[in-house]
Amino acid sequence: MSLELLKIAESVAKAAGEHLMNRPATFTFTEKTSAVDFATQMDQQAEQIIVNQILASRPDDGIIAEEGAAKQSKSGITWVIDPLDGTVNYLYGLPGWNVSVAAKDKSGVVAGVVFAPSIDGFWSAFKGGGAFYNGQKIKCNDPIELDKALLATGFSYDLNLRINQGDTMAKLLPKIRDLRRNGAAAVDLCYVAMGALDGYFEASLKEWDHAAGGLIATEAGAIVSGPAGGAPNSQLVICAGPALHAQLLPLI
Q: At what angle do helices 2-20 and 41-57 cross, to 10 degrees?
């Protein structure tokens, strides 16, 4: 079942990614939580492509998607979709934006794909089957000491939380190799999975931000704590190999 779901995820992510590569000359904006938190017509079009294709083959499945598509599951499978993760990157013509598609059952996420066509990146995993980047099996960096760690993070749209995040950065920067802010949560999780980053952390992520990337990182040997790791009351996701994860927990 997980392999079947993975094949569907791969197909719909590629279809949406190909559509998004036709970047328009002008954008229409839908404001969400603030003026800097928005969706474009391309977010919405990509979501419609994904949802339509999934329900055409699996009409009893449920849907949870960032731009509002929602459907209760009758089959026990629910799809968790971010049709355009990294909308600001996409708007500015920066790389790393992606399509994130995951399928979950009552036990958690069982299949996931992250497709970032602007950087020719395609990550995938199904539960118990390992993680892959462009068809090659991947694993996270471990062990890594904190002072040698290259980390990534993202920042909340909430001003008060941003202030707290700034304080965390100030404490952390003297202790690590360096920090990156790439602008797309799903790809950051996948970068940890393949060893392009040593660790990643971010507060206030939504389920669609981490569902696919969290599974891919876990299948590559990383520990993912917070909502993506099954702790529903936590708003902070921390992803790293086991040795580094243990060092990051008390600091973040």
A: 150
